[in-house]
Amino acid sequence: MHQNPFRILIFFIFCLFLVQAADGQNITISGYVKDSTNGETLIGATVKNKESTIGTVTNAYGYFSLSLPSNTTQIMVSYIGYVTKTINLKGAKLSGIQIALLPQNKEVKEVVINSERLDKNVRSTEMSRIEISGEKLKSLPVIFGEPDVLKAITLMPGIKSGGEASTGFYVRGGGPDQNLILMDEAVVYNPSHLFGFLSVFNSDAVKGIEVIKGGMPANYGGRLSSILNVSMREGNNQNFKYSGGIGLISSRLTAEGPIQKGKSSFLISGRRTYIDVLAKPFIPADLAGNSYYFYDLNLKLNFILGEKDRLFVSGYFGRDILDFKSPTNRAVNFNLGWGNSTATVRWNHVFNQKLFSNTSVMFNRYELFNDFKFGAGGFSVRSGLVDWSLKSDFTWFAHPKHMVKYGFNYTFHTFTPGIAAGNIGTVVINESINKQYAHEYALYALDEYNINHRWSLNYGLRAVAFQLVGPYTQQEFDNNTGLPSGNTKEYKSGETIAFYPRLEPRFNFNYLINEVSSIKGSYTQTYQFLHLATTSGAQFPLDLWVPSSRLVKPQMARQYALGYFRNLKQNTYETSAEIYYKPMRNQIEFKPGANLFFNQNLENEMVFGEGLSYGLELFLRKKTGRLNGWVGYTWSRTTRQFDELNNGKPYFYRYDRTHDISLLLSYQINDKWNANFVFVYGTGNATTLPDSRYAYRFGIDPQTGEPQFVFVDRYSDVNSYRLPAYHRADISFTYLAKQTKKFESSWNFSIYNVYNRANPYFIYFLPDIETQTVKAYMVYLFPILPSVQWNFKF
Amino acid sequence: MRNKGLYLVLFSLLSLVFVACEKEIKIDLPASKEELVVEASINQLSINFNYVILSTTLDYFNPSLSLSAVRGAEVYITEGNVVGSDTVFNINDRVQFFDYVDTIFPGIYLSADFRGQEEKPYKLEVFLKDGRTITGTTFIPKAKPIDSLHFWFEPNKVDTNVFFYMHWLDGPEQDNYRLTLRKGYIPILTGWGYGSRFYTFDDSQINNQPRPFLNFSPYKYNDTLHIYLATIGRKEYLFWDSFRGAANNGGPFATPVEVKSNVEGAIGSFTGYGLYQRSVIFRQE
User: Fold this and answer.
1) Which of B140, B170, B204 is the last residue of a domain?
2) Which residues of B touch A777 (CB under 8 A)?
3) Which listed site, A94, A319, A545, B27, has its alpha carbon 20 to 30 Å from A688?
4) How many CA atoms does the CB half-sphere of A610 hold within 13 Å?
5) Is the CB of residue A68 less than 8 Å from the CB of residue A48?
6) What's the pTM value of the predicted model, to 2 decimals?
């Protein structure tokens, strides 16, 4: 199976090229769908003939191509929240059509309920896929007045939150590092600010998000569990606009406008916390000088170079900065910072009506810097990861029944696990953990094949390979003592240290039972070559990404999913029931008490095992009307098995959640007021608690004769205890304070945790001398928390 | 996890901003399996650090905050010799440790006759009345003297803070250290638990050069500080390094840590200390 994956893929692509057949009876129309007010392209807009028998949706760049019978006279273009538009084809040009849709709130007199193709839920082969628009995101109840992408997606079935102090999310039993997080196609390695309380995505700059938690098509890969695709807005190419928001802990400001009207635009968006500034007057004198803040900056440029070419330049730069001065020793100063930087240049080219391409060059860097100063010296520690990527994707509208996608992706990774430099007194420190270099390749092809009215397939193959290369000095260590054995192996620049070629077959089908219901199934095989070195439940800035190596084999998952989809009341309600079964191999955990910081022999701290997740997800969604929203329920079970842990017995994964319920309701009270209600419930996390203790490090106070010692905890079964269930309800109201052609402002009032539920964050134990017993305490983070945010646009 | 201390500092800072609350909860845990625990310490310098303490584990919520002592055991330590690549222990060199102070501190076994020597191996044997045994070996490395120690006062403070810096010479071989600090006048330091600050180092970052130590938490003018620098073996270092994690468990970032015992038949350690001791009074001459 692992032999010559690229050769097998080339044969597969050759077969796909045979699909094109004579197509003389049809005409093909192609073009872009965009917002008429600002020129932003619309992703996922529906284009169909008037009878609604043939249709397509726009791709990630707003482009579509549709083959129709030559006698077709009209097409209809629709998108949720926009007025549906009918286009007469008589005499119109058929290629490069620019279709501009008017947002519904600009057309107040006409009540338009029609939007995107409402039966998409049952007709497309897609399953286990969720989309949320940037506007929807902003209306959800939020904590501290900060809309957050990663918090929002955890309201979906099958996606679980890592907790209130975590933006890490868990999809169908996978870990937080098994989610590929993309911002305009650039990988975001650490998506959190504020130690996981908030994500790096500024809601003002977000156009929409898409989550694929199963049935991953062949054009995506690199992680086992899910893809989170965050698209940034392009900027208004018609008028200069400014928008922003003032929240309790941070403010945002966005400026956008045309560089050349209708042809090019820019968007620049910034955000900064001011908790450091607000807290300053209240900080005691001995803590003065301590501060914590984060900021981020999004930049996007968009150029329409001609009918066939578009160029997008996007960038992100974010930093978290913590300054700490010791209250007892002013000479001790600790400065910790981390952040992501990404840059993407994308070029869309329409070769002809049937062939669309996007080529991207991407750069991203995640870095951590840590400066420590004290009276007699100081040192700094740096670590990080840098990627350079080249990616090309082609969409070939080969035949009315076939849409073929193919492309490649190449990434060069540079891992810098740690460099330390400085001095302690007269002693000079200049140490580094060896850098690692790797090539990652992917080549894929897939075919979306509508066999007939009832059957459609999406099948594909992705060939991936990972090559760890020199220069590198491989040190060997004694596994018992952890000491270097003295043996080393030198790899020259470019010399292969480990090479893993793999094949990832993908298959999705849809069988339309009738016009309102269908059965869908999928099979996905995925590999992951990068792994997050963490022992905590959530992702933290100090956690390192490490590559597959000679010892660390790529992680692998297979996922089988089957679902029944049914729409009710003329597509007003969408329902689905999905079951999935997901075995995972080469899962990585760290030994209890592993030292992950500045460790040359990190591999020796790892253990390798297997995982299994299966479950049932039920979903009911109402997409339109004054009252809309969804309710999701998941029953699932997730286990891990490692020979070295829990005596080799399978144990519950930390985020195994037997029952998970999420409810989101939105109600448009009137033109001014909108209300949202969220309720979530989840079985408590599995955790390991001590079952016994012993006294150690004994001493006797010679003055009092009293014994001195500490208690050490002993643990038995891994994750055998359940924390109390997590549940809370939030409510928010959005008030449209003013809306004119030139100025718009709104207020968002949120109450988080309305019934003040004490949800567990962690448990700790303290000996109580009075009662001579050990007592257990549960720490919870957020009681009922009201917040307000003011948003404006002009 | 070594970063845990840092995480806790960060979390404390965040607590200035965010609201964290806590409440007492009741937890039902199943009964645990009792295990033996041994803490055995020998050195070449002071009789006060030659002891063997025997106890057992307790159920977590057992209503006792005392040592669960094991009494009436036969405890022996034997000095050995390294002959080529072999270590030889002669039964004639066996010294018995007795629970002399059983009525006051049960479970503590001492010997008036035992003297440790640098660069000698030692064997621990414990025989319990119920037939269980504990065995282990250790080695007393050569002690490393502190080569340089100086201190300074934080200026312009009424209650002056004192910082000190010291270093000792770390050799080319793999050396590991335990450093124990104890403030205040004491006639003897009885058992390592009476120290007030504990540090464990190996030489993975700093090797074959002066090994520095700087205190970040200050002492005060006129304080007396007793410094105990012990050189220890690798498996003893692995135990004490894991002990540091195990004894400071808890919190949102913690993962369960088990100690890496270097004895058979019990949890715990038999540690030979190559001990150097120095005292300093922080005042201007």
Assistant:
1) B140
2) 22-25
3) A545
4) 9
5) no
6) 0.85
